[in-house]
Amino acid sequence: MATVKLLDDAEAEAIPAVKAVFDDIRAVRKSDFVNNFWRGLANDPALLKRTWEGLKAVMMAEGPLDPLVREMIYIAVSTANGCTYCIHSHTAAAKAKGMTDAQHADLLAVIGLAGQTNHLVTSMQIPVDPEFEVGHRR
Amino acid sequence: MATVKLLDDAEAEAIPAVKAVFDDIRAVRKSDFVNNFWRGLANDPALLKRTWEGLKAVMMAEGPLDPLVREMIYIAVSTANGCTYCIHSHTAAAKAKGMTDAQHADLLAVIGLAGQTNHLVTSMQIPVDPEFEVGHRR
Amino acid sequence: MATVKLLDDAEAEAIPAVKAVFDDIRAVRKSDFVNNFWRGLANDPALLKRTWEGLKAVMMAEGPLDPLVREMIYIAVSTANGCTYCIHSHTAAAKAKGMTDAQHADLLAVIGLAGQTNHLVTSMQIPVDPEFEVGHRR
Amino acid sequence: MATVKLLDDAEAEAIPAVKAVFDDIRAVRKSDFVNNFWRGLANDPALLKRTWEGLKAVMMAEGPLDPLVREMIYIAVSTANGCTYCIHSHTAAAKAKGMTDAQHADLLAVIGLAGQTNHLVTSMQIPVDPEFEVGHRR
Amino acid sequence: MATVKLLDDAEAEAIPAVKAVFDDIRAVRKSDFVNNFWRGLANDPALLKRTWEGLKAVMMAEGPLDPLVREMIYIAVSTANGCTYCIHSHTAAAKAKGMTDAQHADLLAVIGLAGQTNHLVTSMQIPVDPEFEVGHRR
Amino acid sequence: MATVKLLDDAEAEAIPAVKAVFDDIRAVRKSDFVNNFWRGLANDPALLKRTWEGLKAVMMAEGPLDPLVREMIYIAVSTANGCTYCIHSHTAAAKAKGMTDAQHADLLAVIGLAGQTNHLVTSMQIPVDPEFEVGHRR
């Protein structure tokens, strides 16, 4: 259950600003499937549009990181934030972009290790070594 | 300030189990520098050894993900967990492994986007689409 | 499933200290409905009473913030903490206090933006501008 | 210390896409002060522009929530995420928008209460009452 | 720097409701030292009193858990929440209550392990085994 | 639903490195039950082995903290991290190790209080008292 209404296709079609974004999602992804996240955001057409444009600019643009690496970074953040939906949707996206089981296992190992050392560091309140601070000090 | 003592070189030398790990850290990294995290863990030589062995197994082993990608995943987790020390040490490590400013900017953009959509999804309590659940259902 | 027993009305009636709080919840809210949170806390009558008294003092007292604003702040914290139950119960409470769909959408947009900028700031480890520190320095 | 360079005015002036955003920040805020967050984002002019446009659209637009309420929601999210910089900058912003000491105290009380009940709920794993799910079930 | 004023002794003395709590803190702890947390809360005498009464009821009452165990649980929560001040103050409190270096090391090892497995579980989205759900199902 | 396959007994038996760990889990716990966490980790036999060895070293070794206290610390971390599975599995483990309802209630009260004060401290950005810093300053 969501705390907002998830717009179905008929409801989305009836709002031009929503229809335009849904059409673009389908065109860009070459798929008729529009997942629930966008159907929830559709309650606020301006937020829907901004979020979709932001996602396209970050995840789909040409850039120094390849799309699969971006998906793995997304999964890492979503794990630490405990976002169930995000983990599911971006793990599916990563697999669709070719993530192998071995890469997934490697990703999990890094996430687990970071979780462990993050907690150890924080509990010991380790001060940042001056060696890490060279450069952009202000 | 840390909540534990950070062992200096003389103190570390005096405990054979600590000395052995510090020697390995220096040999593997080809550097005399041992950062504060290990100096804090050195209060518990068994925990020090396990953590260092775990880190070597995950971050330094041959595997499907390259070392720089692993560092970026580490930064992503550490950011969501708010671990200042970890962000500094692994950003330094990523740069040492060749992370360019453009890659860093791309990483930041993905982390920021994931932070935004994680919060939107959680606040709307979006249910997982059945399409994402195909496969490993139990 | 909860990790504690959720006391039903008969069980709650049988413990005078629990009955007293449940009676007060019903009287204050002018409703017979006692939600699961209180039924779980009822395993510890002293914790139940302290928590209910705290909630009344914060959420229901006359004060500078109106009750709906307080509910929206509650939703914001609960989202960042990933507390599903809390998001559901306080979104329902906010709607009962008159939160419109437009206000809900505005709330979501702020929560999403804060999530994004929180992550960007943390990953960049931006130092606090001295301009923000004027005043209560100690 | 930041993990990225914080561009000073001369460096910002030299990049037209950054200069344009900084000029807009100064014009919109009617102040010459550009805080460190934007100076860090300026390393990626496209991310800088998107983030500033998003902030204007959410925090400064006419809408159902007043600007001070939005700042308080921002502080609530930033607190739960442990973002020191964000707490400082948005508490300063809230005060600039008229937040009184009494409103600040009220905000803190709600944030503290939410933190407490979020933890209690999560530790007890309280199931969502069906009464909270009426409406948008899918 | 705090976002609120930290009341010094003269300021605290001038507000009877604050003075009463500060006097009780000193009497209960048998020490003249009042730490900054209470000096910040003193801006809201009612919140100060409620928080101090809650802390006495939880941390200082006779009960099934001994005071040192409670301090270690506190440190565990504070670590996962990334609360620097809380980690420092409660590690100091735990040491004052007799926490040995060996107990501290054991605590850290458990916190680190939990951080690791929490992240692994969440990233794999492991479903709860029915065996763990026997009992309080509702 | 998990994002990885959960290996059943036949699948686990077919991989010697997995079989060896599952055999050890059953032998150490004197139970045929292998919970889902290990079945998910079994996709990566090396990670499975490292995680199980780490858990044995921390949770089952003789040491200054008793096993029940360690489970309660685990629950505390898992609550703050919002790890549903971990809360369920370790609450079950704590009960199996003799945690009484009164101890559970005491644990919950401490977790809730820590959640509250963590949020209050963070929102007020209380600076660490010098009195807490005596000792291990570096």
UniProtKB/TrEMBL annotation, chains A, B, C, D, E, F:
Q: Does the keyword Oxidoreductase apply?
A: yes
Please give the superkingdom of this protein's source. Answer: Bacteria
The answer to whether the entry has keyword Oxidoreductase is yes
Query: GO MF terms on file?
Result: peroxiredoxin activity
Carboxymuconolactone decarboxylase-like domain location is 48-125
Q: Keywords in UniProt for this one?
A: Oxidoreductase, Peroxidase
Its protein name is Uncharacterized peroxidase-related enzyme
